[in-house]
Amino acid sequence: MNDVSLKKDNLLLGKVPQVTIFFWIIKIMATTVGETAADFLNFNLNWGLTSTSLLMAVLLLVVLFFQIRCEKYIPSLYWLAVVLISVVGTLVTDNLVDNLGMALSTATIIFTIALLATFAAWYASEKSLSIHSINTRKRELFYWLTILFTFALGTAAGDLMAEGLNLGYALSAIIFAALIGAVALAFFRFKLHGVFAFWFAYVLTRPFGASVGDYLSQPQDEGGLGLGSTVTSMAFLIIILCLVIYLTKSRVDELKIPQNPEL
Prior knowledge:
- There is one protein chain.
- 72% of the residues lie in helices and 2% in strands.
- The protein has 263 residues and is mainly alpha-helical.
- It has one domain (15-250).
- The protein has a two-stranded antiparallel ribbon.
- Helix 1 packs parallel to helix 7.
- Keywords: Membrane, Transmembrane, Transmembrane helix.
- The chain crosses the membrane at residues 12-33, 45-66, 78-97, 103-125, 141-161, 167-188, 195-213, 225-247.
- InterPro entries: DUF347.
Protein backbone atom coordinates (compact mmCIF):
# COMPACT_ATOMS: atom_id res chain seq x y z
CA MET A 1 0.00 0.00 0.00
CA ASN A 2 1.29 3.49 -0.85
CA ASP A 3 1.67 6.28 1.71
CA VAL A 4 -1.59 7.77 0.50
CA SER A 5 -4.44 5.29 0.85
CA LEU A 6 -6.77 4.87 -2.13
CA LYS A 7 -10.41 5.80 -1.70
CA LYS A 8 -13.14 4.72 -4.12
CA ASP A 9 -16.86 4.17 -3.63
CA ASN A 10 -16.51 4.60 0.13
CA LEU A 11 -13.73 1.99 0.36
CA LEU A 12 -11.19 2.59 3.11
CA LEU A 13 -8.02 0.53 2.90
CA GLY A 14 -5.78 -0.30 5.82
CA LYS A 15 -7.92 1.12 8.65
CA VAL A 16 -6.77 -1.35 11.32
CA PRO A 17 -3.30 -2.66 12.22
CA GLN A 18 -1.85 -6.01 11.32
CA VAL A 19 -2.15 -8.51 14.19
CA THR A 20 1.42 -8.69 15.46
CA ILE A 21 2.99 -9.07 18.90
CA PHE A 22 2.84 -5.27 19.16
CA PHE A 23 -0.92 -5.38 18.63
CA TRP A 24 -1.44 -7.71 21.58
CA ILE A 25 1.01 -5.90 23.87
CA ILE A 26 -0.60 -2.51 23.30
CA LYS A 27 -4.10 -3.96 23.46
CA ILE A 28 -3.48 -5.60 26.86
CA MET A 29 -1.86 -2.44 28.20
CA ALA A 30 -4.77 -0.38 26.89
CA THR A 31 -7.18 -2.62 28.80
CA THR A 32 -5.13 -2.09 31.95
CA VAL A 33 -5.18 1.67 31.42
CA GLY A 34 -8.92 1.49 30.84
CA GLU A 35 -9.37 0.01 34.30
CA THR A 36 -6.91 2.19 36.20
CA ALA A 37 -7.61 5.46 34.35
CA ALA A 38 -11.34 5.13 35.04
CA ASP A 39 -10.56 4.70 38.74
CA PHE A 40 -8.11 7.63 38.66
CA LEU A 41 -10.62 10.04 37.11
CA ASN A 42 -13.52 8.81 39.19
CA PHE A 43 -11.89 8.55 42.62
CA ASN A 44 -8.50 10.28 42.64
CA LEU A 45 -9.73 13.43 40.90
CA ASN A 46 -13.18 13.13 42.50
CA TRP A 47 -14.99 13.72 39.21
CA GLY A 48 -17.60 11.14 40.07
CA LEU A 49 -18.81 8.29 37.92
CA THR A 50 -21.41 10.25 35.96
CA SER A 51 -19.17 13.23 35.08
CA THR A 52 -16.27 10.94 34.18
CA SER A 53 -18.52 8.83 31.96
CA LEU A 54 -19.94 11.82 30.08
CA LEU A 55 -16.54 13.42 29.49
CA MET A 56 -14.87 10.23 28.29
CA ALA A 57 -17.83 9.37 26.06
CA VAL A 58 -17.60 12.77 24.36
CA LEU A 59 -13.83 12.41 23.88
CA LEU A 60 -14.33 8.93 22.44
CA LEU A 61 -16.95 10.14 19.95
CA VAL A 62 -14.64 12.96 18.80
CA VAL A 63 -11.69 10.59 18.29
CA LEU A 64 -13.86 7.98 16.55
CA PHE A 65 -15.17 10.67 14.22
CA PHE A 66 -11.64 11.43 13.01
CA GLN A 67 -10.66 7.74 13.02
CA ILE A 68 -13.57 6.79 10.77
CA ARG A 69 -13.10 9.83 8.55
CA CYS A 70 -9.42 9.21 7.86
CA GLU A 71 -8.49 7.09 4.86
CA LYS A 72 -5.87 4.78 6.32
CA TYR A 73 -4.49 3.33 9.53
CA ILE A 74 -2.74 5.95 11.67
CA PRO A 75 -1.21 4.31 14.78
CA SER A 76 -1.61 7.28 17.12
CA LEU A 77 -5.26 7.86 16.20
CA TYR A 78 -6.21 4.19 16.19
CA TRP A 79 -4.64 3.37 19.56
CA LEU A 80 -5.99 6.56 21.14
CA ALA A 81 -9.45 5.33 20.14
CA VAL A 82 -8.71 1.92 21.68
CA VAL A 83 -7.53 3.44 24.97
CA LEU A 84 -10.59 5.70 25.17
CA ILE A 85 -13.00 2.91 24.27
CA SER A 86 -11.36 0.81 26.97
CA VAL A 87 -12.06 3.54 29.53
CA VAL A 88 -15.63 4.02 28.30
CA GLY A 89 -16.31 0.28 28.25
CA THR A 90 -15.16 0.09 31.86
CA LEU A 91 -17.36 3.04 32.81
CA VAL A 92 -20.43 1.53 31.09
CA THR A 93 -20.14 -1.55 33.28
CA ASP A 94 -19.36 0.51 36.39
CA ASN A 95 -22.48 2.62 35.81
CA LEU A 96 -24.70 -0.44 35.49
CA VAL A 97 -23.22 -2.10 38.59
CA ASP A 98 -22.54 0.88 40.88
CA ASN A 99 -25.24 3.37 39.85
CA LEU A 100 -28.03 1.01 38.86
CA GLY A 101 -27.21 -1.85 41.21
CA MET A 102 -27.01 -4.53 38.52
CA ALA A 103 -25.32 -7.76 39.54
CA LEU A 104 -21.99 -8.52 37.86
CA SER A 105 -23.36 -11.86 36.65
CA THR A 106 -26.30 -10.10 35.01
CA ALA A 107 -24.03 -7.51 33.38
CA THR A 108 -21.81 -10.32 32.06
CA ILE A 109 -24.81 -12.08 30.50
CA ILE A 110 -26.20 -8.86 29.00
CA PHE A 111 -22.90 -7.88 27.37
CA THR A 112 -22.35 -11.43 26.13
CA ILE A 113 -25.73 -11.30 24.38
CA ALA A 114 -25.00 -7.79 23.04
CA LEU A 115 -21.63 -8.94 21.68
CA LEU A 116 -23.09 -12.05 20.04
CA ALA A 117 -25.91 -9.98 18.54
CA THR A 118 -23.36 -7.53 17.11
CA PHE A 119 -21.36 -10.39 15.61
CA ALA A 120 -24.56 -11.82 14.11
CA ALA A 121 -25.63 -8.49 12.61
CA TRP A 122 -22.11 -7.84 11.29
CA TYR A 123 -21.88 -11.24 9.64
CA ALA A 124 -25.41 -11.08 8.24
CA SER A 125 -24.60 -7.73 6.65
CA GLU A 126 -21.01 -8.26 5.52
CA LYS A 127 -20.50 -12.07 5.41
CA SER A 128 -17.20 -11.74 7.27
CA LEU A 129 -15.95 -10.91 10.77
CA SER A 130 -12.32 -10.74 9.72
CA ILE A 131 -10.36 -7.60 10.53
CA HIS A 132 -8.79 -8.06 7.12
CA SER A 133 -12.15 -7.05 5.67
CA ILE A 134 -12.40 -3.68 7.45
CA ASN A 135 -12.41 -1.64 4.23
CA THR A 136 -15.73 0.23 4.40
CA ARG A 137 -17.20 2.64 6.93
CA LYS A 138 -20.06 0.25 7.71
CA ARG A 139 -17.62 -2.53 8.57
CA GLU A 140 -15.54 -0.17 10.66
CA LEU A 141 -18.63 0.91 12.62
CA PHE A 142 -19.40 -2.76 13.32
CA TYR A 143 -15.75 -3.19 14.33
CA TRP A 144 -15.78 -0.38 16.91
CA LEU A 145 -19.17 -1.38 18.31
CA THR A 146 -17.83 -4.91 18.75
CA ILE A 147 -14.76 -3.61 20.54
CA LEU A 148 -16.90 -1.52 22.89
CA PHE A 149 -18.89 -4.58 23.91
CA THR A 150 -15.72 -6.67 24.34
CA PHE A 151 -14.40 -4.09 26.80
CA ALA A 152 -17.68 -3.83 28.70
CA LEU A 153 -18.01 -7.62 28.81
CA GLY A 154 -14.39 -8.04 29.88
CA THR A 155 -14.83 -5.57 32.71
CA ALA A 156 -17.93 -7.36 34.00
CA ALA A 157 -16.39 -10.83 33.64
CA GLY A 158 -13.12 -9.77 35.24
CA ASP A 159 -14.83 -8.15 38.22
CA LEU A 160 -17.13 -11.16 38.54
CA MET A 161 -14.14 -13.49 38.77
CA ALA A 162 -12.01 -11.35 41.06
CA GLU A 163 -14.66 -9.82 43.31
CA GLY A 164 -17.94 -11.66 42.77
CA LEU A 165 -16.37 -15.11 43.11
CA ASN A 166 -13.66 -13.85 45.51
CA LEU A 167 -10.83 -15.32 43.43
CA GLY A 168 -8.68 -12.21 43.80
CA TYR A 169 -6.91 -10.18 41.14
CA ALA A 170 -3.77 -12.29 40.83
CA LEU A 171 -5.57 -15.63 40.46
CA SER A 172 -8.07 -14.10 38.02
CA ALA A 173 -5.20 -12.78 35.89
CA ILE A 174 -3.56 -16.22 35.88
CA ILE A 175 -6.81 -17.91 34.84
CA PHE A 176 -7.43 -15.50 31.97
CA ALA A 177 -3.78 -15.75 30.89
CA ALA A 178 -4.11 -19.54 30.80
CA LEU A 179 -7.27 -19.25 28.67
CA ILE A 180 -5.48 -16.92 26.25
CA GLY A 181 -2.62 -19.40 26.08
CA ALA A 182 -5.07 -22.21 25.35
CA VAL A 183 -6.57 -20.21 22.46
CA ALA A 184 -3.09 -19.52 21.06
CA LEU A 185 -2.19 -23.21 21.31
CA ALA A 186 -5.42 -24.22 19.61
CA PHE A 187 -4.74 -21.74 16.79
CA PHE A 188 -1.08 -22.56 16.14
CA ARG A 189 -1.13 -26.28 16.94
CA PHE A 190 -4.64 -27.47 16.14
CA LYS A 191 -5.58 -24.97 13.41
CA LEU A 192 -8.45 -23.30 15.24
CA HIS A 193 -10.29 -20.95 12.85
CA GLY A 194 -8.41 -17.66 12.75
CA VAL A 195 -11.36 -15.29 13.03
CA PHE A 196 -12.83 -17.19 15.99
CA ALA A 197 -9.43 -17.40 17.70
CA PHE A 198 -8.80 -13.69 17.22
CA TRP A 199 -12.08 -12.50 18.71
CA PHE A 200 -12.03 -15.06 21.52
CA ALA A 201 -8.54 -13.92 22.50
CA TYR A 202 -9.56 -10.27 22.08
CA VAL A 203 -12.39 -10.70 24.58
CA LEU A 204 -10.14 -12.53 27.05
CA THR A 205 -7.42 -9.88 27.00
CA ARG A 206 -9.86 -7.37 28.51
CA PRO A 207 -10.47 -9.17 31.84
CA PHE A 208 -6.81 -10.23 31.86
CA GLY A 209 -5.63 -6.64 31.51
CA ALA A 210 -8.21 -5.39 34.02
CA SER A 211 -7.15 -8.01 36.56
CA VAL A 212 -3.49 -7.08 36.08
CA GLY A 213 -4.35 -3.39 36.46
CA ASP A 214 -6.32 -3.99 39.64
CA TYR A 215 -3.59 -6.23 41.04
CA LEU A 216 -0.97 -3.54 40.47
CA SER A 217 -3.05 -0.57 41.63
CA GLN A 218 -5.32 -1.78 44.43
CA PRO A 219 -4.23 -1.58 48.10
CA GLN A 220 -2.43 -4.55 49.59
CA ASP A 221 -5.24 -5.22 52.07
CA GLU A 222 -7.55 -5.68 49.07
CA GLY A 223 -5.27 -8.15 47.29
CA GLY A 224 -3.21 -5.73 45.19
CA LEU A 225 0.35 -4.45 45.20
CA GLY A 226 -0.69 -0.94 46.21
CA LEU A 227 1.04 0.96 43.39
CA GLY A 228 -2.03 3.14 42.93
CA SER A 229 -4.02 4.00 39.79
CA THR A 230 -1.88 7.06 39.03
CA VAL A 231 1.45 5.23 38.87
CA THR A 232 -0.01 2.24 37.05
CA SER A 233 -1.83 4.37 34.46
CA MET A 234 1.17 6.60 33.76
CA ALA A 235 3.61 3.70 33.47
CA PHE A 236 1.46 1.84 30.96
CA LEU A 237 0.59 4.99 29.02
CA ILE A 238 4.30 5.75 28.61
CA ILE A 239 4.96 2.23 27.30
CA ILE A 240 2.01 2.50 24.90
CA LEU A 241 3.27 5.89 23.69
CA CYS A 242 6.77 4.50 23.03
CA LEU A 243 5.36 1.53 21.09
CA VAL A 244 3.03 3.75 19.05
CA ILE A 245 5.94 6.03 18.14
CA TYR A 246 7.91 2.98 17.03
CA LEU A 247 5.00 1.70 14.93
CA THR A 248 4.50 5.13 13.36
CA LYS A 249 8.14 5.27 12.30
CA SER A 250 8.63 1.63 11.31
CA ARG A 251 5.18 0.98 9.82
CA VAL A 252 5.67 -2.71 10.54
CA ASP A 253 2.00 -3.23 11.35
CA GLU A 254 0.43 -1.69 8.27
CA LEU A 255 -2.26 -4.03 7.01
CA LYS A 256 -2.30 -5.14 3.40
CA ILE A 257 -5.88 -6.15 2.60
CA PRO A 258 -5.97 -9.13 0.16
CA GLN A 259 -8.55 -9.72 -2.56
CA ASN A 260 -10.36 -12.36 -0.46
CA PRO A 261 -9.67 -11.32 3.14
CA GLU A 262 -9.37 -14.02 5.77
CA LEU A 263 -7.70 -13.71 9.17
